[in-house]
Every structure is written in C-alpha cells, then in structure tokens.
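From the shared-data thread, chain only:
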Amino acid sequence: MWKNRAVMLTLLMSNVVLLTLLVATYMPSEGDVAIGKAAPRDATVNLPELKGGAILAANQWPDACSFVDQEEIKAIFPGAKDIEQESRPISVLSIKDFAADSSWKESDRSKSGQCLYSMRLPGETYAATQFWFRIEAVADPKLIVGYEDRLVSGSNTNQGAKGADHCVITGNHEGSWNCRKGPLLFTVGGQSSVTFKGVSAPAPFVWRDDVLPEFVRTIAAKIE
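Structure, as tokens:
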C-alpha cells in the first residue's frame, strides 16, 4: 500500500513539474527591447512660404527621407541595427482629379514622398521592424488646417500633438498618426515583431502610444 502511494506521489510530482515547464514555455514573458526618447538633430527641412491658398506641387516636395536620419532612429530604438531607408513615390491625384483630367502631370507625383525605414531590433534575426513616414500635402497652413479638419478622420490623441500643431490617430489598434505642422501634412506608421519592456507580447498599441509619438516629435522639430 505504501509502495503504491509512493508511486502515485512520484507520478503526481512529475506531472506538476511537467505542467510547470509547459506553462513556462507557453506563457509570454516581458520583452526587453527599450524605447528611447526623440533627439531631433538641428537640421531644418526648408519649405517655401505658402500663403493665399497656395499648394506646393508634389514634384517640389522635399525628400521624405530627409526628415528622419539613422542617428535619430537610434535615439528612439537604442538597440537598432542594420538600418536602411528606401524612398518611395507618391501620387497626389485623387479619383475626382483623375475623372476631371486623366492626363499625366509631373506636378501630381513626388519621387520621394514616402520613406520606409527597416531595421533589426534585439531578438530579431533579420530587419523585421519597419517605420514609415509619408508626406500627404504641403500647402498654405490655413488650407492644411481646413483640409485636415474636414477630410482626415481619426481620434484625437491622449498625449497631445508632440510638437506638431495637431494630430489624430487613424485606427484604434494599428493606429497611424496623421499630423500637421505649419505647411506640412504627414502620416507616420510602422510595425515590429519584438516585445517591448513592460508588455508581454508584440502589440500594435505600443507603436501607437509609445513609438510613433517620438517619431512625430522628431519630424515636427524639422519644420519652423
């Protein structure tokens, strides 16, 4: 009888150990990737003075990649490695404009209106983290205000505009920040496969609430 109890106790203890190992294996642990603070460099992006409803043609927009450099990315992600950037073209022709006149115009297209940054954060085996910045419009600041108020839908941030004049979050979970600063209307977004300090799994809201505001602060600092 005592022998049977000993066997049962041994089996029970083995099951407890096995269960503990399984829980430890499948329970997500807190990430160890730190998010730093924006450290904008003293490098203003020059935009022309626009008044009286003036709109800067897309082919005269600045290079989107000139708003954030690698050192500024490392300030936000101290552990970032293998940082690369890629300029992407932007077309500002709306479907209404196209219907009115479908002929191609150089002024409707920016060769580098969007910049895509890729990088490898601690724990990633390849550059799986991406951040992007897109210019939406460059125009008379009064026109930018009216355009954003009427045509850009989103929720006001609970953190303020982070150096911009105004920002809204477009989408609650995978939220991108759409902001305006003077004559510039822009959007920032991104994604990562890592977990950050204080959270137990990769979560889009970390980008929305902790990462993107630092990029907004970096970009807004470049506009006088």
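The beta strands are 81-91, 109-120, 129-138, 155-156, 166-170, 176-181, 184-191.
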